[in-house]
Amino acid sequence: IAIVNATGFLLPIVNLLKLSFYQSSETGALVEIFTFNTWLRIATDTFYIQMLMRTTLISLLITLLTLLVSYPIAFFIYRSTGALRSIMVVLVISPLLTSAVVRTYGWVAILSEQGLVNNLLSFIGAGPHRLIFNTTGIVIGLTEILMPYMILSLMAGFGRLDHRYEEASLSLGASPLRTFLTVTLPLTLPGIALGCLLCFVIAVSAFITPQLLGGGRVFLLATEIYHQAIVTLNWPVAAVLSMIVLIVFGAALALYARALQALE
Predict the structure, then answer these.
(1) Which of 50, 4, 19, 8 is nearest to 228 (CA)?
(2) Could you read off the pLDDT tens digit of each residue along the chain, which spans 264 residues?
């Protein structure tokens, strides 16, 4: 296992780190001269700073919306029994069997100017609105794409939830809302933490959906890495941005570990 991890994970990271200290010529060729210039340029360039903040904030927003939409579904499935629960689980998993590209193109059709959503908004006199090729489209598309991950993570974390605690709270005179806030929600926090970590990491590194629904007009870390590596052939910049993504992942994992310690 250690050899596999070293070969498949550590070596590419070390290679990226090495590339981040090289220079790129005008032709795209790498100049193997050790320098901090690329790191310093990105650290002091407001474009990249704003892009990092934008990526983080959008990913946090997507994670929050995914949690709010997925929690009731996961809770309902967890409390269901028999055939209904099996059917619901299959429905949750089934989107994962479809390519993210296909699902994203589906959202392009639904959210376009002549799509289903804008036609409905126009029918009730509330539209149309521009829902794609902007941040709105990215948030909508990624929220739907990440829902299965959040639901499955929440269900995996519901193991500490015992309905007898809720029954005891209700029998002592607590309202359903107070029972949820003081009993149910705290017991499901491990699942919430796991789902938020998974969705945030995927949202930060997502490329296909932001590229298609953003239309190249919303600059995020993943799309900029692709642009620098494939279009402009500036591999040092792409490597530095990739390392920044890994730093964000590390920070998210550290927060997750601390949250778990606080919940113990």
Answers:
(1) 19
(2) 677 766 777 888 888 888 888 887 776 677 778 888 889 999 999 999 999 999 999 999 999 999 999 999 999 998 888 888 899 999 999 988 888 889 999 999 898 888 888 888 888 887 788 888 889 999 999 999 999 999 999 988 887 777 788 888 888 888 888 888 888 888 888 889 999 999 999 999 999 999 999 988 889 999 999 999 888 888 899 999 999 999 999 999 999 999 888 877
- Cis before 128? omega within 30: yes
Amino acid identity at 50:
Q
Give yes or no for a contact between 208 and 104, defined as CB atoms under 8 angstroms apart: yes
| Vertex 190 angle, CA 220 and 159, to 5° | 130
Q: What residues contact 231, with CB distance under 8 A and at least 6 apart?
A: none
DSSP letter (8 states) at residue 231: I
Q: How far apart are CA 20 and CA 77, in angstroms?
A: 46
pTM of the model: 0.89
Cross-strand bridge partners of residue 31: 23
Question: Residues, the chain, total?
Answer: 264
**What's the CA dihedral at 103, 109, 113, 119 to 10 degrees?**
-100
